[in-house]
Amino acid sequence: MAVSIKSAREIELMRESCRILSEVHERLGEFIKPGISTWEIDELGEKLIRSYDCIPNFLHYNGYPASVCVSVNDEVVHGIPSKKRILREGDIVSLDAGLIYKGYHSDAARTYPVGTISKEAAKLIEVTRQSFFEGIKFAKAGNHLYDISNAIDAYVTGFGYGIVRDLVGHGIGTSLHEEPQIPNFKQWRRGIKLQPGMTLAIEPMINMGDYDVAWLDDDWTVVTTDGSLSAHYENTVLITEGEPEILTLPKA
Ligand code: MF3
Ligand code: CO
Hints:
The protein is an alpha+beta fold. It has a single domain (8-246), classed as Creatinase/methionine aminopeptidase superfamily (Creatine Amidinohydrolase, Alpha-Beta Complex), CATH 3.90.230. The protein is 27% helix and 25% strand. Helix 1 (8-31) packs antiparallel against helix 2 (38-51) and helix 3 packs antiparallel against helix 4. It is globular. The model has no long low-confidence stretch (mean pLDDT 98). Bound molecules: 2-amino-4-trifluoromethylsulfanyl-butyric acid and cobalt (II) ion (CO). Cobalt (II) ion binds next to loops.
């Protein structure tokens, strides 16, 4: 299957799907504080998504049991919410969520501090977020896909962090995962040419230490093998002739 180009009508539906998701993320971000369980975050996320008559697209995806992936500290992505996992002051927590609106998927992730965190952890979160913005400077028609990957790599590598290689970003539309795959680390080719109407989920996952990751016995939770902290930042983006439209951020 080739990379899909969305029609004007499909772009409107993607915009609305993503706008709703950005509101869900804002509400979830406000909810983060020491003492809550990761299960409560998922419960609120599912409730919010359904309150917009949308469907949580992660729930039951390949058997995933929740609507929001909640990943704490050395957990990179796909943490499974649990009543027993209580957030503590100084933790960092990554929330990854997505939804379906009238058949169109959105996907976004943010990492939050829990109370006061170390300077080092705050820097990891900020560099991860900024790496997305460095990448999308190249996300426009006429450039090539891996220009994005290479820009993220060039920025992050300067900090000595590890860029996760086993997981990548992806096209998105009538499915959560469409072509193409979007690595966050250096590629030796330029990849496909970007075209207006492509919708891409760009999602750097950055470790404070080594890039290597492992899967826990629950078959979902991805952790850093060296135990270092990890952060995640993701938005669904529309490629245009000019600047990309970041669909899952609130309009300025
Ligand atoms: N945002 C994640 C991704 O792009 C989706 C989580 S997979 C799920 O792969 F199974 F947890 F839904
Ligand atoms: Co994604």
